[in-house]
Amino acid sequence: MKKILLLFTILSVSVITSACINNLAVQELNNKAESYMDKGDTEAAICRLKASLDLDDQMFQTHYNLAVAYNSVGNYDGAVNEANKVLELKPDFKDAMYIMAVAKESIAYQVIEQVEDANELSLDEIADFNNKASDAVDAYNKYLVSNPSSSETDQINNKITELNNKIKEYTDLYDNKSLEHDEQIQEDINGEEENQEQQDSDSSDEQNNVEESD
Fold first, then answer.
1. How far separated are the first and last CA of the chain, in Å rounded?
2. Model's pTM, two decimal places?
């Protein structure tokens, strides 16, 4: 919540200093969004922020507010999209890098949280998790490089370590399952070859019996 309140303060200053009549409506919509966020009504806040962007989609602060709101309701893809829009408008806005990393981490864990036993995951799901977790690690590292004095450095480094450990664990799992998969394929091939050899043998025996009868 602290980050959200800070963000709305930045947004208000930006709109007021622009001194544009159209931005009065933007200001009102963002004020309402802030009020709804304070009350915990994130969906209503999202509606106001979308309406604000309909009036002015160049406000990087509004895009970031929407990214934070999306993240809070579990729309992580939406949060990443809005964070990307922030960075297109203001490439050095560090908080956008952070919320993007948080959302990407959540996207990665969504891949594996649906099963209790990791062995139930398919090879594609394991690879998907590893790719998305690596993407989150890259995003966190990018944030740390841009903001080395962040008060959250230790916390973020812990997240990076946890993600990297998980990637290693699932890489090992992928290798083991891949080996089992290959072995099963080879067993199936061997079984088919044995069946074919047996069928050929039976056919040959049957042919010999026919010839002997003649």
1. 94
2. 0.75
